[in-house]
Amino acid sequence: MNKKITGVLVFCMLILLICPPSLANAKAVLVLCYHNVTDQPGQDIYAVTPANLKSHLTYLKEQGYTPISLKEYIAASQTGAALPDKPVLLTFDDGYQSVYTKVFPLLKEYRYPGMIAIVTSWLDYAPAELGPLVTWQQIREMEGSGLIDVASHSHDMHRFTVITPQGDRGPLLSRLQYKNGRYETVDEQRERVRRDLHESQAAFNKELGHTVQAVVWPYGAYTPSAVTDALQEGFEACFALNDGVNPPGKQALQAANRLIITGNPSKEHFASLLKVNSENTKIPVKAIQLDLDMIYDPGSAVQTEANLNLAIERIRSSGANTIYLQSFSDEDGSGNIKSVYFYTKEAPVKADLFSHVIGRLREEGRFSIYAWFPTLAAQWLLEESPQDAVAAYDEKNKGWYRRATPFSSRVSDRLSSLVADLAAYNDIDGILFQDDVYLNDFEDFSPAAGWAFKEQTDFELTPQLLKERPELNERWIRLKTDTLTGLTVRLWETAGSYRPNLGSARNIYPIVITNPAAEEWLGQNYEQYLRTYTYTVIMAYPYLEKAYQNPNGWLENLASAALSNRENAQKTVFKLQTYDWNKKHWLSEAEIRKQAEVLRKKGVIHIAYYPENVYSEQ
User: Fold this and answer.
1) pTM of the prediction?
2) Phi and psi angles of residue 180, each rounded to the nearest 5 degrees, phi first
3) Residue 559: which residues within 8 A CB-CB, separation 6 or more?
4) CB-based contacts of 294: which residues, under 8 Å, 6+ apart?
5) For residue 102, which of 67, 136, 52 has the smallest C-alpha distance?
6) Which residues pair with 504 in a beta bridge?
7) What is the pLDDT of residues 77-104, one digit of tens each?
8) In angstroms, what CA-CA distances link 557 with 507, 547, 564?
9) d(C-alpha 174, C-alpha 182), whole Å
10) Contact at 8 Å (CB) between 538 and 574?
């Protein structure tokens, strides 16, 4: 055998080891989540009638879906075991008596397997409002049929708990409790989750003679550490409630998507739900960036709540689906951040308000909530370590924010601790990094930046060197850009260890879009943003850029540059100004609407608005 053929064979074997063909061409599994089945659903949005459930099963059969068992689902991801065409896993949560009286007979009729998720403590004592639940004997009978797999729905964590000083409530398993005047620690939370998982498995072992393979998170809410502990407790698959299908693999076992069935859908409605779920298209972002500084009244909790009510009413009527929520205080508008609005020991706290606002927003609807997060302009970092301040070789040309250098490990470590508290104590869906993450072309000549430059180039960092050696200047520009982005990635990953599926967004200055050479002036690179973050947020503020003569033309040019590759539209948010900071007045609703129309005609998908005037009646 010649060397060329041998090399090809070795390469193919490596590909097989990395991605077995059974997984490389694996079929994605649709997982459906049902609850109670009753002839009279009433106000229960999670209940379906037996007739409609039967129509769903009929539709699955007509469309060529093949229901699979939990064991088959797990085997496909663990070993690459083959799955049938259009596999679907039917799951039923909470263990209502109807699972035995209504669901089980239907599954036997269709010969379809299914999975039931049981809250083990409820079989001894359950909240009265749930109504009748299955018994252990009925569970044993259903499991013995070979059609039903049993999963844990926790032992005693399918309930809400107080999570803020204001009394807001959230899922017990995934949130830190607030009681007796203090927050639970992360370690305390993890210990009670571990204990609950163990008690649940012990109950199954006692009643069924074995532990179970899967855990279904109550309300679909969990933490990454809960997944780790579940796997250590013997669970092989963890199920959440996100839309989408599940290609076999690690994600399918650790954070399985399930389509929750609500509103007792007819056969036709059920078909449309499956279609939308399989397409898994991104819903266009309509975001509002909300200042807590406009809501918080330091002299009156009552007035603060009244202001919050106004803001929520505005958000509700706006049709927004995403909130960029200020997590810091910047009352004087300088951008130099002195305190935050969330519980932490890593920064001065102006008021523990952030988590309460999130709680109120969660009550109102399904918003995606991004924490608008301060980064380099955190002034307490500079008070503690003045040597970590960003330095310009020409003080007259230093940046407009007083910032800490991203090259300092002290700065990076402190911000990581801060963002850990943000994610641990607050139910956020993502982070929006403030526009303080930049370095201009006169910066950064701090000691930490000098050390980083020398480590990369073996040269001392001086303005003269950069002027004389263009190739070193190019390396310096790239090092600054990469260091700024690297810091945000570290913060995003730190927060993600507390919040699963955490999104990311970062503000970018428009000149970087229209003139790529501006990377040298700001340390920002649009293409790098697109590769790195869930969303790139362009500060599309024509009046801040003094484009008074033709603001719509300015927006058109910006959109053309940003969307020169049409795929960029999926990951780019255009944030429009609603206030003219130069002339100090609010823009009219008609003008803002016209600007949004201009952008949409250019192919823009995602639009945000800032600031939100919570006191306006427009």
Assistant:
1) 0.92
2) 55, 35
3) 574, 598, 599, 602, 603, 604
4) 307, 311, 611, 612, 614, 615
5) 52
6) 431
7) 999 999 999 999 999 999 999 999 999 9
8) 19, 12, 11
9) 17
10) yes
